[in-house]
Model the fold of this input.
Amino acid sequence: MSETQVITVRYWAGAKHAAGTDLDEVASADPLTLTELRERAVALHPGTRLAEVLAVCSALVGDLPVGSADPGEVVVRPGETVEFLPPFAGG
Done:
């Protein structure tokens, strides 16, 4: 059995506003898919718009952008950091 660690979840801009915080720590002994991690993050903030906001966010796992990869196929390991970045206007 694996030792439980945390996945650090950072929220930026609108995601930070929707979550009411800029950071969550999700405990997990095993790797999660990005989809599973989003579901756990949303569960930490019931009654918010976080699910809607995260659905349109780009994500970084560590310093690597997820891009158009299927979130159900992106693996996040305990000890890693995931950042959710909403679309930004301007340039």
User: Anything to note?
Assistant: The longest helix spans residues 34-43. Strands lie at 5-11, 23-28, 32-33, 58-61, 64-65, 75-76, 81-85.
